[in-house]
Design the sequence.
């Protein structure tokens, strides 16, 4: 099921002012893909998700599922499954009862599944009643998300990761057209986040359901999504495959939001077709650009260094290890930059090193944060 957003806008009006949470968002999410809505807290990504679900009304624009305009369709008629940040499980019901709940208590869903049960009985020559048919649906989805051994437990007897899978099972048992996940991993510890995000990816691949995953965690989005949708202040910034957005950001925000450690930023100037840093010519530009002050962006892994003069001169400082990466903190005038450490070229604090950049590793931004050049 393809999801298409056409100039989707949401405004919240208070006593004294109006806040635009989502601002003319236009986007197509291909059928069967897992797409991450990514951005800082308060950027509008959850608001956009809730408009897709029908929880929030639309101030302007339209929502389409394939060619069907669902902008004014009630949430229970849209055929979406949603998993909230807090999972919203019923504490007094066991796992089986939580998963079965929508099949037993929603008139619209029950009507659809009774029709499906009748077709199943005709096709298989069986005589299942509705309770038996629901049990079959619950068992199938519980096995898919690997919680079939937990069906008699209450939510309080489950780990955070298990509760999250119950919430996903309850959303999937309805056989929704679209699956929406709102910060589903935020309540888990680091180890469970890693494990559970991989499980979400496997479940999505097995079902082939179009899935939208809201997160502020770039590692989650980069690791499991087919595409990421980067949002800032309600405005779409960039859409693309995770590595494409990481390697080729369209503006300064995209460059700085993605990456650990963050991209190195330091000032420079374009002067007569040359890039000047600290009043010294570093490079000749690959294309003509007007003379202007620029911000230079280079990720730590895109620097290469040598000990002999030639390139951008910096002074090596502390060598530190962050996870699997070891970096040199180098001084470039008043600025500190991070350079990936080369074990073949050990460096001591205070030594001069000379930097070059790999192809496409150097990005220039203008005063408004727009990308001017990458080479």
Sequence:
């Amino acid at each position: 099921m393809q999801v298409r957003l056409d100039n989707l806008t949401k405004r919240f009006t208070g006593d004294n002012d109006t806040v635009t949470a989502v601002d003319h968002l236009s986007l197509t999410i291909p059928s069967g893909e897992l797409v991450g809505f990514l951005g800082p807290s308060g950027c509008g990504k959850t608001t956009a998700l809730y408009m897709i679900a029908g929880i929030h009304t639309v101030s302007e624009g339209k929502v389409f599922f394939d060619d069907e305009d669902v902008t004014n369709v009630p949430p229970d008629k849209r055929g979406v499954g949603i998993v909230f940040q807090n999972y919203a499980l019923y504490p007094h019901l066991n796992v089986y009862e939580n998963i079965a709940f929508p099949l037993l208590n929603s008139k619209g869903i029950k009507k659809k599944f009774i029709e499906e049960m009748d077709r199943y009985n005709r096709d298989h020559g069986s005589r299942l009643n509705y309770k038996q048919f629901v049990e079959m649906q619950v068992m199938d989805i519980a096995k898919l998300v690997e919680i079939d051994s937990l069906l008699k437990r209450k939510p309080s007897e489950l780990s955070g990761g298990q509760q999250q899978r119950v919430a996903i099972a309850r959303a999937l048992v309805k056989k929704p057209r679209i699956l929406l996940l709102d910060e589903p991993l935020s309540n888990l510890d680091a180890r469970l986040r890693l494990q559970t995000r991989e499980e979400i990816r496997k479940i999505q691949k097995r079902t082939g359901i179009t899935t939208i995953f809201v997160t502020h965690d770039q590692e989650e989005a980069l690791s499991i999504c087919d595409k990421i949708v980067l949002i800032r202040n309600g405005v779409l910034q960039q859409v693309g495959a995770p590595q494409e957005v990481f390697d080729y950001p369209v503006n300064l925000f995209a460059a700085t939001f993605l990456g650990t450690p963050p991209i190195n930023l330091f000032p420079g100037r374009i002067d007569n077709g040359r890039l000047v840093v600290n009043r010294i010519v570093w490079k000749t530009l690959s294309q003509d650009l007007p003379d202007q002050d620029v911000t230079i962006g280079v990720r730590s892994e895109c620097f290469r260094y040598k000990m002999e003069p030639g390139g951008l001169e910096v002074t090596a400082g502390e060598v530190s290890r962050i996870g699997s990466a070891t970096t040199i903190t180098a001084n470039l005038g008043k600025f500190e930059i991070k350079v990936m450490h080369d074990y073949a070229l050990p460096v001591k604090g205070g030594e001069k090193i000379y930097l070059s950049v790999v192809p496409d590793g150097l990005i220039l931004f203008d005063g408004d944060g727009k990308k001017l050049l990458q080479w």
